[in-house]
Design brief:
heterotrimer, A mainly alpha (61), B alpha+beta (158), C mainly beta (445), B: 158 residues, 60s Ribosomal Protein L30, Chain: A, 2 domains, 4-stranded mixed sheet, two-stranded antiparallel sheet, C: mainly beta, Rossmann fold, Neuraminidase, 6-stranded mixed sheet, 4-stranded antiparallel sheet, 5 helices, globular
């Protein structure tokens, strides 16, 4: 399975350090999950997923 | 027969324990009124009958009736010994942040100084220094120890 | 009935499926430190001797410091060296990525060094093992006796590349070293590298010293001393050791800090039972009064842009946190929770204010936004106070004291640190008991 960051311009834009780090981290996670067990049907449904990361719940206090 | 004797003994032991613990609490209560230390354990004397210190409630710099009484005696002694100058050392307990405690100690010492001045003691005979929580007189970690540390002490400067 | 079912089924066959975008909210996860392999730096065989440095062990010693730095963050998990699969010089040229991945490493640090002509040349590389490519590489030269700082600088660069935030390893911590019985503590100013090494004492312990803070260039320290029984704010030059009293105040000055441009010292001045905040310009010695209120105003701390000051005041009856403009106008209270608030300190990022809170007999270290919202209490203890920020605004260092037993014994004071997220609470090792820690900015700036 091939994976890459699509927004090349943003990856290299100055001031977007956190975007680059987050994207690399996500890529690492995806690569570590290989091979992915994907459902055999319904590709149309899950081929585009929007993942909303919000770690606020994990902050202590 | 044995069982009733056992219960009787147990009851007596329990009673003794209750009395003893009540005594201990009473002892502490006798040394504090509310939050303010009223005992004499750490008190020294500038002269016969003149205690060298006054005590405060947590976070307070207000003088109690007992404190005013002590300071009145100090003022009288200072009037009789007009050559003596004093330093008032203000202190706080350890249950507070360090910098604020420095300010609180200064406020307490000044409360005592102001009161001495109302009895005619001149300001240039009294200087003030705060030690915040740096010099406790009792190293304990309990309310009684802390109450002994919340104090303003009058010390002879010459 | 059967006809109805066929009609419905038929309709479904011809319905064009409209799929809305599936959204997944990820709000929780496992906190697993990133497994990272730090290879000992390869020591070039052409290296010369330098004083009493063990050049042969330098590569290994530098990597050990880097590992310890990473482990202390709670974000990285440096892997054990006996599992390493390639020799340092070969790994630095071309790592066999699959082999390194076998030991479960996701990142690899390699490097080499050369000591020649009284100079230490270092080169390091950070590799992403899952992407199988180099992430960052850097080379620099310094004097060999700076080898510990080399390890800290490399740690900072890698930390920054992997987290996006500036590191905080090439820094020092100034604090008060304590000893003796609780009612007669001996206190000295001490300074050390953030990892506990290179401890130096700046005063002798003959008088009480409290609350030392660095200036922005880390060359000066301001602190409070009871020298000659006169509690005042002092300025100390770390290099020369010279000390001078700040200003000519007729009463106790305390709680000093530098302004972000290093030009002023801000502090409290107590007189006649009232403590207010003042500044003194270090160049022209002009003193400015900032607060003018019969309450206790203390613990002032500037915002990193120098425009605002947060401070501690009991003008509402009890210790609370306030902010004001740098000229003392527009005073606004920002703490409103139950309990007493003290020691406010503005984050170098400008977004948060850390503080000490006392509530129902317990002490807390917490943070809040600069408008007072979002209060989070990070840790609770019998006694702790005085947080200080790491220069990247990510870690807080503070100190704790223990209870004494019924005989007044068993007292100790130690430095502790905690991550802004509330995780990774750990003790910071010091040679003696310690209190009042303050973190420097990055030395390499």
């Amino acid at each position: 399975m091939k994976s890459e960051i699509l927004d090349h311009e943003r990856m290299n834009r100055p001031g977007q350090k956190f975007y680059k780090v987050l994207a690399e981290s996500a890529l690492r996670a995806v690569r570590l999950c290989q091979p992915l067990k994907v459902p055999p049907t319904g590709y149309e449904k899950w081929k585009d997923l929007q993942l909303n990361f919000n770690p606020e719940e994990m902050l202590k206090g | 027969m044995n069982l009733s004797k056992f219960f009787k003994n147990a009851f007596l032991v329990m009673l003794a324990c209750l009395v003893l613990s009540a005594c201990a609490t009473k002892k502490v209560q006798n040394q504090m009124q509310g939050d303010v230390y009223t005992g004499t354990e750490t008190v020294e004397y500038l002269a016969s009958g003149v205690p060298d210190r006054v005590f405060f409630a947590t976070n307070e710099s207000v003088l109690t009736t007992a404190s005013r009484d002590t300071l009145r005696k100090q003022a009288e002694w200072l009037r009789k010994n007009s050559k003596i100058n004093v330093v008032l050392e203000g202190h706080a307990d350890e249950r507070g942040t360090r910098e604020y405690n420095l300010a609180l100690g200064e406020r307490r010492a000044n409360a005592a100084k102001d009161y001495l001045m109302t009895y005619g003691i001149s300001a240039n005979r009294i200087s003030v220094i705060s030690y915040g929580k740096e010099r406790p007189v009792d190293s304990g970690s309990n309310p009684l120890a802390w109450s002994k540390n919340r104090r303003s002490v009058t010390v002879k400067a010459n | 009935m059967r006809n109805l079912i066929i009609i419905i089924a038929f309709n479904f066959l011809f319905l064009k499926p409209v799929y809305s975008l599936i959204e997944v909210d990820i709000t929780r996860g496992n906190l697993d430190p990133l497994p990272i392999a730090v290879s000992p730096l390869h020591v070039d065989i052409k290296s010369e001797e330098f004083k009493d440095l063990r050049i042969k062990d330098l590569g290994e010693n530098i990597s050990k410091i880097i590992e310890r730095n990473f482990r202390s963050t709670g974000l990285f998990n440096p892997l054990k060296k006996d599992a390493f699969v390639q020799k340092p010089d070969i790994a630095h040229l071309k790592p066999r990525f699959e082999d390194w991945r076998l030991i479960k490493a996701q990142a690899l640090v390699t490097g080499k060094l050369l000591v020649k002509d009284e100079k230490l040349k270092v080169e390091f590389r950070l590799w992403d093992l899952t992407a199988a490519k180099e992430m960052t590489a850097l080379a620099f030269t310094t004097t060999p006796s700076n080898w510990r700082r080399v390890a800290h600088i490399i740690s900072d660069k890698i930390y920054e590349r992997l987290t996006g935030e500036e590191g905080y390893f090439d820094t020092r911590i100034i604090y008060v070293a304590e000893s003796g019985p609780k009612n007669q503590r001996v206190k000295k100013l001490a300074i050390m590298d953030q990892d506990g090494y290179n401890t130096k004492y700046l005063t002798l312990g003959n008088e009480l010293v409290l609350t030392p803070r660095f200036n922005p260039t880390n060359q000066m320290v301001t602190y409070m001393s009871y020298f000659r029984n006169m509690p005042r704010v002092y300025l100390l030059d770390i290099e020369t050791g010279t000390q001078e009293v700040v200003g000519n105040f007729p009463g106790m000055t305390f709680a000093p800090r530098f302004s972000p441009d290093g030009k002023k010292i801000i502090m409290s001045f107590a007189m006649d039972g009232n403590s207010d905040i003042y500044t003194m310009d270090l160049e022209n010695r002009i003193v400015e009064r900032i607060t003018n209120h019969p309450s206790i105003d203390t613990s002032p701390s500037y915002s990193p842009d120098g425009k605002f000051i947060c401070f501690n005041s009991d003008r509402s009856g009890y210790q609370q946190i306030y902010i004001m403009r740098k000229d003392g106008t527009k005073v606004k209270r920002i703490s409103f929770g139950k309990g007493l608030y003290g020691t406010p300190v503005w984050s170098p990022r400008g977004d948060l204010i850390a503080f000490t809170k006392l509530h129902k007999g317990k002490f807390y270290i917490g943070v809040m936004r600069t408008d007072g919202t979002g209060e989070r209490l990070l840790t609770e203890n019998y006694y702790q106070e005085a947080p200080s920020w790491s220069p990247n605004g990510r870690v807080l260092i503070f100190y704790r004291e223990t209870k004494t037993d019924s005989e007044g014994k068993g007292f100790s004071a130690k430095l502790w640190s905690i991550d802004l997220t509330g995780y990774n609470e750990r003790m910071v090792k010091t040679e003696s008991d310690a209190s009042d820690p303050s973190w420097s900015s990055l030395l390499s700036n």
